[in-house]
């Protein structure tokens, strides 16, 4: 058998590479069952902590900041749900990982908007921010990239 035939057989895409739900459940050892149960408990713990603090958040957060604050606090539930689903359904790992990354990206945008809202708008945010507001000289780029200078926030693009 030549090398190209061996490589072709190795790269052949089949549905047998990822186990079916029945194969997944039947192949679980007690250790894996314990880890899955621990993941479920941690998921329920994040939900419980969020819902216990929800009343405090609603009561203490100014109304104009409430929606973004609740959204930012809810990121942990979305990511933990995606992680738990990826444990239960092995074929959904890519989808769940994508959901987690998109959630972090969306919440980063919402956090910056919340900063700007707390400052009283873009103009006040720019006035209050110092010259080192966006320092790019952080690990791992702090030692090797001497040309990176801190950026001052501005409205120009």
From TrEMBL:
Primary localisation category: membrane
Record flagged with keyword Transmembrane helix: yes
Membrane topology note: Multi-pass membrane protein
CC annotations in GO: membrane
Places the protein is found: Membrane
Short name of any one Pfam family annotated for the protein: Solute_trans_a
The entry's keywords: Membrane, Transmembrane, Transmembrane helix
Transmembrane segments: 31-50, 70-93, 99-119
InterPro entries, A to Z: Ostalpha/TMEM184C
PANTHER family tied to this protein: ORGANIC SOLUTE TRANSPORTER-RELATED
Protein name, entry field: Organic solute transporter alpha-like protein
Species assigned in the record: Lutzomyia longipalpis
């Amino acid at each position: 058998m030549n090398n190209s035939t061996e490589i072709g057989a190795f790269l052949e895409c089949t549905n047998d590479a990822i186990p079916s739900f029945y194969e997944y459940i039947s192949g679980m050892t007690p250790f894996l069952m314990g880890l899955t149960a621990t993941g479920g408990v941690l998921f329920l713990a994040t939900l419980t902590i969020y819902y216990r603090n929800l009343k405090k958040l609603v009561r203490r957060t100014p109304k104009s900041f409430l929606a973004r604050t609740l959204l930012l606090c809810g990121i942990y539930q979305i990511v933990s749900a995606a992680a738990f689903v990826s444990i239960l359904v092995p074929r959904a790992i890519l989808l769940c990982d994508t959901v987690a990354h998109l959630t972090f990206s969306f919440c980063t945008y919402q956090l910056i908007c919340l900063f700007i809202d707390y400052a009283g708008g873009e103009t006040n945010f720019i006035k209050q921010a110092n010259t080192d507001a966006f320092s790019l000289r952080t690990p791992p780029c702090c030692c090797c990239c001497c040309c990176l200078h801190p950026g001052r926030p501005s409205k120009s693009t």
